Amino acid sequence: MPHLSRRTTPAALALSLTLLTALPALADLQAGRIAFSAGDFATAFKEFNAVAETGDSSGQYLAGEMLIQGRGVTKDVRRGMTLLEASARNGHVGAQSMVGALYAFGQDMPADYAKALSFLRPAAQAGDVHAQNNLAALTYFGLGTPRDIVDALHWAKRASSKRLVAAIKLEQEIESQATPEQVKAAVERMTQPLSPPAPVPGPAPTAQVAAAPKPAAAPPSKPEAKPVATAAATPARTAPTKPEPAPAPVSPPPPPPPPTTAAPAAAPTPAASAPANIADAAPMAPNTVPISRPAPKPAAAAPAPAPPPATAPVAAPVAGGWVIQVGSLPSREEAEKHWKVIAAKQSGLLGGRQPSMVQADLGAKGIYTRVFLTGFADQASAAGLCSRLKAAGTDCLVKKGP
């Protein structure tokens, strides 16, 4: 019987070398996930960052997210965004959704709706539910793009079909403003398959980011429950051991009412949350975009003004402590209405907590009223409640107290 020799071709050798090179990266990712689950965020960041420096998109995503949150490492939004954008350009859908949400929300950076759209659209086309919701919100309000009721309703319907609470509310709001013809066109578009995701525009990064900053001194001792980013997770889960421990992307904050009949949108009810779609223990969670209906036209004869409604009681903010932001709205009245909805819906989780209403100057957008839950001893306890709220359909983001 003739002897058949096996010759290793250059292509086979290259493939083998590639696979062998990938093994340490996979091991580092697994080690990072194990550390993250144990609450050892400093070690988790070290492992994820080592993988990120090889150009791996999952490592870039995880390390970038932890940098933006300041979890296990000194907070560095600029460097975190560099990593997240590199991951997004490498095709990581979760990173695309999160970067788009962060640019839409403008948390710790100037809002840039054009950039937000360039990252959200590919993620939405890839099926990311939070990206679809955030893309619908930006398109509905004409932020960074011409207002398009049909396209906005189409994306809101896709997201609401996956039972995302924020998207269901947004779909109802858009339908209330759409004509029957526009609704029909959006439904017809729903029956068409999604286009293949387009690459994120812009040059890919040419250099690796600088060495990791100094890890934070004392990571939390207990693992935190974290939603998994599928465009921002909604189901409650403990820190992932297989999926990536990422907070959910956030929905865009409410813009000033456009010069149309559209009602102003409310900031992520954490995401982010922020863009709300900003998250459970980081400014990355809000995905809910509560929207105010347009005010009815005034009657011919205005009745005598009614006495002002009683305002919701507020809790005094804890200076320097950790808070959970559950809303950011254009007026105190809207913020109080928004809180009443949350309090009724999440009474079991809130346990009688009262909000702190804090005004924030957002520059060109005007003065917004932010709704905070206060009184948390540390970041971990705030993140835990935020995670449970998001799992129950209310977006939020955790941040240092005002």
From TrEMBL:
Residues 194-204, 242-261 have a biased composition (Pro residues). It comes from the Bacteria. Gene3D superfamilies: Sporulation related repeat, Tetratricopeptide repeat domain. Pfam families: Sel1, SPOR. Residues 192-312 are annotated as: Disordered. Keywords: Signal. Residues 205-215, 226-241, 262-286 have a biased composition (Low complexity). Residues 1-27 form the signal peptide. The keyword Endoplasmic reticulum does not apply. GO terms for molecular function: peptidoglycan binding. This is Uncharacterized protein.
